[in-house]
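Give me C-alpha coordinates for this 87-residue protein.
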Amino acid sequence: MEAGGSRTVLVYTGFVKNITLSADENLIEQARKVAADQGTTLNAAFREWLAGFSGRAERARKFDETMERLKYFTVDRKYTREEMNER
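Here you go.
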Protein backbone atom coordinates (compact mmCIF):
# COMPACT_ATOMS: atom_id res chain seq x y z
CA MET A 1 0.00 0.00 0.00
CA GLU A 2 1.24 3.49 -0.84
CA ALA A 3 1.98 6.02 1.86
CA GLY A 4 -1.15 7.96 2.67
CA GLY A 5 -3.34 5.28 1.03
CA SER A 6 -6.52 4.03 2.58
CA ARG A 7 -7.69 0.54 3.31
CA THR A 8 -11.25 -0.73 3.45
CA VAL A 9 -12.10 -2.96 6.38
CA LEU A 10 -15.30 -4.99 6.19
CA VAL A 11 -17.03 -6.01 9.40
CA TYR A 12 -19.83 -8.53 9.14
CA THR A 13 -22.63 -8.17 11.64
CA GLY A 14 -24.60 -11.16 10.34
CA PHE A 15 -23.96 -14.71 9.26
CA VAL A 16 -21.57 -15.11 6.31
CA LYS A 17 -21.59 -18.37 4.39
CA ASN A 18 -18.53 -19.67 2.57
CA ILE A 19 -18.94 -21.17 -0.89
CA THR A 20 -16.56 -23.07 -3.12
CA LEU A 21 -16.23 -22.22 -6.81
CA SER A 22 -14.23 -23.89 -9.55
CA ALA A 23 -12.43 -22.01 -12.32
CA ASP A 24 -9.32 -22.24 -14.45
CA GLU A 25 -6.22 -21.53 -12.36
CA ASN A 26 -4.89 -18.93 -14.82
CA LEU A 27 -8.24 -17.15 -14.83
CA ILE A 28 -8.25 -17.00 -11.04
CA GLU A 29 -4.73 -15.55 -10.98
CA GLN A 30 -5.65 -12.94 -13.60
CA ALA A 31 -8.74 -12.00 -11.59
CA ARG A 32 -6.66 -11.69 -8.41
CA LYS A 33 -4.27 -9.34 -10.19
CA VAL A 34 -7.15 -7.20 -11.49
CA ALA A 35 -8.65 -7.05 -8.01
CA ALA A 36 -5.30 -6.08 -6.50
CA ASP A 37 -4.89 -3.35 -9.13
CA GLN A 38 -8.29 -2.04 -8.03
CA GLY A 39 -7.25 -2.10 -4.38
CA THR A 40 -9.51 -4.96 -3.39
CA THR A 41 -9.51 -8.72 -3.10
CA LEU A 42 -11.01 -11.32 -5.37
CA ASN A 43 -13.34 -12.29 -2.53
CA ALA A 44 -14.58 -8.70 -2.07
CA ALA A 45 -14.96 -8.25 -5.85
CA PHE A 46 -17.02 -11.44 -6.01
CA ARG A 47 -19.26 -10.32 -3.13
CA GLU A 48 -19.87 -7.03 -4.97
CA TRP A 49 -20.67 -8.89 -8.20
CA LEU A 50 -22.98 -11.30 -6.35
CA ALA A 51 -24.94 -8.42 -4.80
CA GLY A 52 -25.41 -6.81 -8.22
CA PHE A 53 -26.27 -10.10 -9.91
CA SER A 54 -28.87 -11.02 -7.32
CA GLY A 55 -30.49 -7.56 -7.55
CA ARG A 56 -31.13 -7.75 -11.31
CA ALA A 57 -34.53 -9.41 -10.98
CA GLU A 58 -35.70 -6.82 -8.44
CA ARG A 59 -34.55 -3.92 -10.64
CA ALA A 60 -36.30 -5.47 -13.64
CA ARG A 61 -39.50 -5.91 -11.64
CA LYS A 62 -39.43 -2.26 -10.51
CA PHE A 63 -38.81 -1.13 -14.08
CA ASP A 64 -41.79 -3.18 -15.30
CA GLU A 65 -43.99 -1.71 -12.57
CA THR A 66 -42.97 1.83 -13.57
CA MET A 67 -43.66 1.15 -17.25
CA GLU A 68 -47.06 -0.29 -16.35
CA ARG A 69 -47.94 2.89 -14.41
CA LEU A 70 -46.77 5.08 -17.30
CA LYS A 71 -48.59 3.24 -20.09
CA TYR A 72 -51.62 5.51 -19.69
CA PHE A 73 -49.54 8.65 -20.18
CA THR A 74 -50.34 10.33 -23.49
CA VAL A 75 -49.08 13.42 -25.26
CA ASP A 76 -51.60 15.66 -26.99
CA ARG A 77 -49.25 16.58 -29.82
CA LYS A 78 -45.71 16.15 -31.10
CA TYR A 79 -43.33 18.58 -29.42
CA THR A 80 -40.51 20.35 -31.25
CA ARG A 81 -36.90 19.79 -30.23
CA GLU A 82 -36.79 23.34 -28.83
CA GLU A 83 -39.90 22.76 -26.71
CA MET A 84 -38.54 19.50 -25.32
CA ASN A 85 -35.27 21.20 -24.37
CA GLU A 86 -36.79 24.28 -22.73
CA ARG A 87 -35.79 24.81 -19.14
